Amino acid sequence: MTVTDFTERLRKVGPPSKSSSRWLNLATVVVALVFALVIVHLVAVLTDRTVPALVLARDVGASQPFTESDLAAVDLVPDHDIRFVRASDRAAVIGRAPAVGLQKGMLLAAASLIPEGVPGPGFQLVGLRVEAGHRPSQPLWPHARVCVSPLPQALPCDSSQPAADAFVAKVAGVGSPDSSGTVVVDVIVDSEHLGPALAAASGSVIISLRGA
Hints:
Elements: H1 3-13, H2 18-49, E1 51-56, E2 71-76, H3 90-93, E3 123-130, E4 145-150, E5 167-174, E6 183-190, H4 194-201, E7 205-209
Antiparallel strand pairs: 1-2, 3-6, 4-5, 4-7, 5-6
């Protein structure tokens, strides 16, 4: 085939018709529109799934009541493995205190709060200074039952010895260790053991975990 023959064939075929171009343009617009709608739908679905949650705007120590400036909100996709406090419950959190020290940026969970009503009628919150080696190596946690025994003569909580000062209490919170490894453990005691608890607060104690 010569160049002249090829040119002649192209002339006979000619450019695409206006009708074909119109349908091609319309199809392109439809595909682009469908793609855009899919993207919008996905964004809407993801947006609907997020829930505003509370996080710490700054460090808050154990037993330190929350203020408005301590809390911030972030959008979070709910997960059944993650327990958190929703931003809509901010007002109920203000004035309550964490059972343990919390750091800036941490997600606030209901389990980290001292239960409402603690210590409650007939109970009192007492802080005990516990030196390193005078407590279990396992970290203490809120609601744990412990035996508190003053030193220098430590006694078990079930001792039948008269005038034993050892008593059972429930942990409300644990502070951060100081330079010597001593921590302050806040415990909840009833009125019957308030005297021994206050006496123990002014001295050294040994804390051991009790069964439920």
